[in-house]
Design a protein that fits this description.
By secondary structure, the chain is mainly beta. The chain contains three helices and twelve strands. A seven-stranded antiparallel sheet has the order 3-2-6-9-10-5-4. Strands 1-11-12 form a three-stranded antiparallel sheet, with no helix packed on it.
C-alpha cells in the first residue's frame, strides 16, 4: 500500500486488513510475569498503557485464546516489564515457552514475583480489576512498586521488532 493513501474497509468483514491497520501503530514491547504452580511464567504483550497516577494503575490485555490466559487473567499479582532493545532474544524465548522465564536472568520481588533483569522499567502490580473485551480481557493492575532505567526500548511495528532511538 502506498504511504499516505488510506483505504476504507469493514473490520468485521476483513480481519486481516484490521490487523494490518493496528500494526501501523508502533508499540513498546512488554513481558508480563507471574508465579504459578509450574513456577514463574511469562507472556509477551504490546497491549500496555497507563491508567491512573493516583492511585498508580496500568493495564494490559491478554488474549483469551492464549494457552497462558488462565495464568494471567486472574493472577492476584504480576510484573510488567518494558523491554530494552537488546532483549529481543528474551521475548523470543518467552514466546516459545511460558516457563522460559525460569532460564532468564531474573530476581524475585519482595512479594515473590519474577522480575527480569535489564528491563527498562518494571511495574509490580496487584490485580485491581478485569474487564471482558471481546477476544481479550483488560487487566488493570494497581502498581505497588516501580523501577526504571535509561536505554533504548524494544519496539514492535507491522509484525517486526525494532529499536526506537530516542534523542532528547
Amino acid at each position: 500500500m502506498e504511504a499516505g493513501t488510506l483505504q476504507s474497509f469493514d473490520p468485521a468483514a476483513d480481519p486481516a486488513s484490521f490487523r494490518g491497520a493496528l500494526g501501523s501503530f508502533v508499540t513498546g514491547v512488554t513481558v508480563v510475569t507471574t508465579d504459578s504452580p509450574e513456577g514463574p511464567v511469562g507472556i509477551v504483550a504490546n497491549s500496555f498503557a497507563s491508567v491512573s497516577l493516583d492511585p498508580p494503575m496500568v493495564l494490559w490485555s491478554p488474549a483469551k485464546s492464549s494457552s497462558r490466559f488462565d495464568h494471567f487473567a486472574a493472577a492476584p499479582r504480576f510484573v510488567i516489564h518494558v523491554m530494552a532493545a537488546d532483549q529481543r532474544d528474551i521475548c523470543a524465548a518467552i514466546i516459545a515457552s511460558k516457563t522460559a522465564v525460569a532460564d532468564i536472568p531474573m530476581d524475585v520481588s519482595s512479594c515473590g514475583m519474577p522480575v527480569i533483569k535489564g528491563a527498562l522499567a518494571t511495574f509490580e502490580c496487584e490485580l485491581a480489576a478485569s474487564h471482558d473485551a471481546g477476544d481479550h480481557v483488560i487487566v488493570v493492575g494497581r502498581v505497588t512498586k516501580a523501577h526504571h532505567a535509561g536505554g533504548e526500548p524494544l519496539a514492535f511495528h507491522a509484525g517486526s521488532y525494532g529499536a526506537v532511538n530516542v534523542k532528547n
